[in-house]
Structure formats: C-alpha cells, structure tokens
C-alpha cells in the first residue's frame, strides 16, 4: 500500500512538471521565425538598351531595408538605392537598362538585406528593333491607362501588344506600375490609308462607313481586326486597325446629296414609329451617308445624323454606291 502511494506521488509530480514545461516549449516554437529564401525576379528577361525592367523581390523580413542594385553580370553595380519591403517582406520597383549598354551584354538585379544577397536571372541586351515604337521597348502602365489606348499611343496594334505580353490573362485588367513589352512598329505601308494606321470609332459609325471613309474594302477592314467578334457591333472609343490602301484603288464614289421636297423629320431609326430628332425645312440639301430599308436614307444635317424618307427628297448622285446601313 505504501509502495503504491509513493508511485502515485512520483507520477503526479512528473505530470505537473510536464505541464509546467509545455507552454514554454510551445512559446519557443511560436517565436521561431519562418522565412523563405530571398529571391529576385525581373520582367522582361531581354530587350534593347533603355528597356524598363520590372523587379519583384521576396523572402525578406517585414519592412526590411533593402539595397537594390543594377550591375553588368560579374561586375560592380552601376546603380544602387535603398527601399523598404512591405509587411509581407516583398517589394516591387523598376530599373532601366542603360541606353549605352552593349548589345550582347548581360545585366542582373541584386537585392541585399544585411549579409543576405539574392540575384536575378540575367537580362540579355539585344539589338534595337528596326522600327522602334515611340514608347520605346517597354511601357510602364499609369493610372487610367487601358490597353487599346496604350496600343494607339505606341503605334502598334492591340493584337500585337497582347502577343508581346502573354502574362496578361485579362486584357481588361492592367494595373498602374505594370511593365509592358512594346513590339516594334511595322514599316510604314507604301499606300497608307487617309485615316492612318488606326481609327477610333465615333458614335454613329459602322464598319462599312469606316471602310468607305478610309478607302479600304470592307473585307480587308474586317480581316485586319480579328478582335471584332461581330462586325455589326462596334462601339464609340474602340480602336480599329486600318490596312493599307491597294496600289490602284477604285476611285471613291462621288458625294451623294438629297434635297428635301417638304418639311422632313430626321429620325433615329428608319421608321415613323420613332421619335423626331429635328425637322429639316423643305429645300434643304443634306449629305447622304448610307441607304437603308424600304427607301429610307441615312443623312447628315449639320452635326446631326439620322434617317429620312428618301422618297420625299430629290437625290443627287448614285445612292446605290453607298454602303447599306443596318437599321
């Protein structure tokens, strides 16, 4: 009995000792910091002298002071500055490859925190393109930018811009500070369109009218814009690529006009069941832009466009040469 009591006392003492030590052991485990190895990534990995490179570094302590350096591979840095990591131990920044960097040379970005150092993959300097974009080899997205506007500013097509930036998974979502690769501009066409290489759709435009104004076949305009899923549905502000004009284009048809025989209502649709935009006085001559169903014609009177009953006008010119406008 005594022996059993002594054994029970020893067991209780051991248990109490274990319980008292466990929180301290857990505290030691919780206090042990876990950090991933420091790393540096750059984008793009190659380009001409003067390319803006996007830098992403991670694996640092929160709010750590980081020295960011740009250096020829295997040589001393030529540019260095300090930054502070964010609360997740990351930082984003940009560096510019020197404009006098030799073609064929390699450059690296180095991040250093105390004695810990991480180096990026090498950036390979390539020849500048034969027809560089006015934006240069890269473009840093600014607040309020969107892809179609950047393509127009940089004089490249939207499809070319997307091909050069496969990291963009949603063309409608780009962020300020993002670095885009800008492809070379195509050589100027031998027979440029009077509209230029691109055209910004305006309210009231439709594909056939744009093709006529830019002196290109409708089929060529549609082929040059594969991003337009439905040629019958375009919207104001959309940017279209305009192909070059054929060497011996068919002369554009002469202007077609119409003189109203009576006071005539200008309407938004080719039917009398719609509202009246304005009333055009009898004897007014207006420009005919397109033909429509059942004798209706689409006209421009001053700065207003709309439909009028063509059978109540005297038409001057061949209305059949004008594009057919969808109602």
Total number of helices: 5
Task: Give the total of beta strands.
Answer: 20
**In what range is the share of β-strand residues?**
25-35%
Oligomeric organization of the protein chains:
single chain
What does this protein structure show overall?
The protein is an alpha+beta fold and 327 residues long. The protein folds into four domains: 39-125, Neocarzinostatin-like (Immunoglobulin-like), CATH 2.60.40; 138-181, LysM domain (Membrane-bound Lytic Murein Transglycosylase D, Chain A, Roll), CATH 3.10.350; 198-241, LysM domain (Membrane-bound Lytic Murein Transglycosylase D, Chain A); 257-321, Roll (SH3 type barrels), CATH 2.30.30.40. It contains five helices and 20 strands. The protein has helices spanning 2-31, 147-153, 158-163, 207-213, 218-223, and strands spanning 39-43, 46-47, 52-58, 65-72, 79-84, 91-96, 106-113, 116-119, 123-125, 138-140, 179-181, 198-200, 239-241, 257-260, 264-266, 278-280, 285-291, 296-301, 304-309, 313-316. The strands form six sheets. Strands 2, 4, 5, 7, 8 and 9 form a six-stranded mixed sheet that branches. The chain has a five-stranded antiparallel sheet with strand order 19-18-17-14-20, with no helix packed on it. A three-stranded antiparallel sheet has the order 1-3-6, with no helix packed on it. A hairpin with a 2-residue loop joins strand 18 and strand 19 (304-309). The chain is elongated, with a radius of gyration of 34 Å. The termini are far apart. The model is unreliable at 24-34 (pLDDT under 50).
